[in-house]
Design goal:
Length: about 230
Amino acid sequence: MSILRIGHRGAKGYVAENTFNSIKKAIQLNVDGIEIDVFKCLSGQLVLSHDEDLKRMTGKSGAIENLTLKEIDDYLINNEYKISTLNEILEQIKDPLLINVELKGSDTATTTSEIINDCLVKGAWNIEHFIVSSFNWVELEKFRFVDKNIPVGILVSQSMSISEAIEFGKKINAHAIHPNYNLLDKKTVKKIKNNGFKIFTWTVNDKNDIDLMKELNVDGIISDYPDRI
């Protein structure tokens, strides 16, 4: 099987991250999937953002979890792009592809499950189009408690343990481990795969690192520049 090419926060290397325009750019680059981040705002919708505060992307401070969607509409990313909800993004994608939803904020698990399952009953999407991941293993466990079916990925940073991720993955019946690429070598890849997990690694931008991940035969590469994969 070929390695899946997954655009990080859309196509972050080319267009402002987590915007529909960035996602559209990734699709134009013929990706197999996209990774996006979600927080739950005060009025209950899931909005796309990597940061809990909007300052870095909009120049204006505001904690997403303390703002209603109507208030968030007053913020523009790079003075240009609207902040989208997960619902809006999924409705605007005409040809379904792999969507990796990363749970960034608290209390995102149940709403994410509801939105994805609503998509599934509408017809064009199927369960293989989704994977839900997080560094917040408590939130990921909540997701698995409310949703036994949608695939789950365990995010692992360089300061975390692959062995612990594998054990937690078994506990919640995860589909994949999502390690930082610096954690991977032949032995580690073999260990993860022997335990029955797919490997989606991040954030791999340098061509030499991408080539190494291909040699290690990971299942998917998440990159700001997915056309380099």
